[in-house]
Amino acid sequence: MMRKLMIGLIVLVVGQGEALAQVSLDSCRRMAIANNKEIIQQQIKIEQAGYQRKQAEAAYLPSLDFEGGYIFNQKKLSLVDQDQLLPTKSFNPATGTYDFNLLTDPATGMPIMNNGQPIPSQVALLPKSALTYDVHNVFAASLTLTQPIYMGGKIRAMNNITHYAEQLAQSMHSTKVQDVVYSVDEAYWRVVSLVAKQKLAESYLKLVKNLDDDVQKMINQGVATRANKLTVDVKVNEANVALAKVNNGVELSRMALNQLCGLPIHSRFTLEDENKKEVVGSLHATHVVMDSVYARRHEIRSLELAAKIYDEKAKVAKSEMLPQVAAFAAYHASNPNSYNGFENKFGFAFSMGAMVKVPLWHWGGLSNKYKEALAESRLQKVKIEDAREKISLQVNQATFRYEEAWKTFDKTKSNLIEANENLRCSQLAFREGVANLETVIAAQTAWLQACSENIDAQIDILLCDVYLSKVMGEMKY
Length: 477
Hints:
- This protein is of the alpha+beta class.
- The protein is built from 9 helices and 15 strands.
- The chain has a 4-stranded antiparallel β-sheet with strand order 3-12-14-15, with no helix packed on it.
- Strand 8 and strand 9 form a beta hairpin.
- The radius of gyration is 46 Å and the shape is rod-shaped.
- The two termini are 21 Å apart.
- Mean pLDDT is 87; it is low at 1-19.
């Protein structure tokens, strides 16, 4: 875990052995990607989708199942309720047939009847015990092999669904990574901005304190009043308050960046761009080919995969209306077995066959299910078109904001040059006694505002550039 947290960190030794890390933007991105819980969840979903794909592929192959069981019966099984007397037959050479042995009337030679049934002259005893079987302990087992032959296209559709689902999970993972990287970039440049404003607040405080010292000297020489001193003191207090606020902002923004990077929120490190006087690069071209943007955007890719999944779901729904054929083979074992008079030992047998299922009438339930799946597929295609329109608007707005940010930056640079010169001239004139205190304070305030606007303009360029890369699908990580 610690190795992950220290990716890209360059340790600098300062003070009395205290270690202060210097972190680049790329290091923050890698740490955030490695430690973000939502990204980890997406990685697990990719793993799950892979298992689902393998599960669907297995449906093409025959399945082998074993079933076994044991039953204890209290009583034995008897096929008759008492001993049986069965009539016998004798062979008649004259007719070549077997005739029942019956009692006959000597006078008429006809069989003697009893309740409408002839009375046998000879019987064979079949005791009840001969048809009684020991079934106290019954064992049964079966090994069955089943091979789907035709399932109406369901197996193929399910395989396609799981393949698309795995790609969708990967696309959603990439989208989440881009979102995290964008959040890290925002937090990173926010820290850089506040650190720059912290230094600016310190410089402004030093500036007004120097002015306060100058006014105190002028009071001592009798060329300034107590009211002048109070005016400057107010500015000193305002500068102290502004510095306290920006200090708190820096700490809070560092905590937010630590949280995104998966570090303890009180971790202390400096950012690689904190001490740069200017952090912007150069204006790059913003030529846009929307078809290329659509191809790069993971959101469009996800919606297209979702549409394909719903197309396949429609095929699954359609398969419910088609015949389904499967073949099977089984090897059975039972004890007692019925293959040789219910012997109390295992008997084995083999069987094989085929099963056909043909849906006939379901009151429109299956057809309506299929129509619902088709409607859902059409809905996904409409969502894709809607997403394309919104992305087109996003890209055009981001391009406009990026170009506008550069124009603003150029103006703030000009304003800063003028503010620096104005401050220098007003301070010189104040020391020479040809400018009043209000002129110097106004020049200092204008300089502070120009510096602050210049910092904001630089950070705005970077954020606009990051956002433009995101909406164009060109964000690198």
